[in-house]
Amino acid sequence: MNRITSLFGIQYPVVQAGMVWCSGWRLASAVSNAGGLGLIGAGSMHPETLREHIRKCRAATDRPFGVNIPLMYPQIEEIMDIVVEEKVKIVFTSAGNPKTWTSWLKERGITVVHVVSSSRFAVKCEEAGVDAVVAEGFEAGGHNGREETTTLCLIPSVRRATTLPLIAAGGIATGESMLAAMVLGAEGVQIGTRFALTDESSASKEFKSLCLGLGEGDTKLLLKKLSPVRLVKNAFRDAVEEAESRGASVEELRALLGKGRAKKGIFEGDLEQGELEIGQVAALVSRRESVDEVMKDLLETYRQAAGKTYF
């Protein structure tokens, strides 16, 4: 047991990231049943869809699970009310000021964790009263911090800056990287990419197949004028790069992005016009696995690495 497993009431300090179009009730319940903490990703769900996923997740597992809520969500009040009504006990917030909702959630008996990309924001989280932080490095998929600090640098910096329980994220997909994060000061890990490509993920088979064939350098952080996001190379990304290289305005980039790009790419499998978000560590993942297989491999390789003598 450590502070993360105790906080959530889970067996292993492994959290599945709440990823848009990947993290439905099937993935979340499978991770929770395997001893980790599964998260439903509210960012790609209409309010009533989230309610449905919470209920299905509760029916599929008797273990703890949570909901990830981006604070930029347009119907945030409705989403928060649903979380309370459905008696969700754990909420991860991201992409916004933790002071906005932390007290409100905690007053209702909910454990609150906030995702940060810098030690400065980790300190703000502690001031806001969150129960733990996720420190997410530049390697991560999806929306990313503007600081572009790598996980290897970020974790020890956050550990020095705050006493909060610390979860490491960004570029973690193996037991060895999990051990490295712990050595640097983390008490748990959040894993996105590897879980996004499992059988239980709600991402399309086309998206999974493409990502399982990626190599080093096949993702790039773009859209920094809007909200930085790590993208796989395709026709849409080429258009974004061209626009950014000629100095396109925020309005032009927003129009290019439009609505539903991530759904089109990740959920519907449009590999050319969709917004394909995945982490750098996809280059290390080359075969489809179940959540159970991933968890067993993580734990086995962690224990093997922890038992080695390096010099």
UniProtKB/TrEMBL annotation:
Classification via SUPFAM superfamilies: Inosine monophosphate dehydrogenase (IMPDH) (SSF51412)
Q: Which InterPro entries match?
A: Aldolase_TIM, NMO
The source's domain of life comes to: Bacteria
Query: In the UniProt record, does the keyword Lipid metabolism occur?
Result: no
List the Pfam families hit by this protein, alphabetically: NMO
Annotated keywords: Flavoprotein, FMN, Monooxygenase, Oxidoreductase
Name the CDD domains for this protein: NPD_like (cd04730)
Q: Is Oxidoreductase there in the keyword field?
A: yes
What GO molecular functions are on record for this protein? nitronate monooxygenase activity
Q: Read off the PANTHER family from this record.
A: 2-NITROPROPANE DIOXYGENASE (PTHR32332), 2-NITROPROPANE DIOXYGENASE-LIKE PROTEIN (PTHR32332:SF20)
* The name this protein goes by in its record: Nitronate monooxygenase
Annotated organism of origin? Bacteroides pyogenes
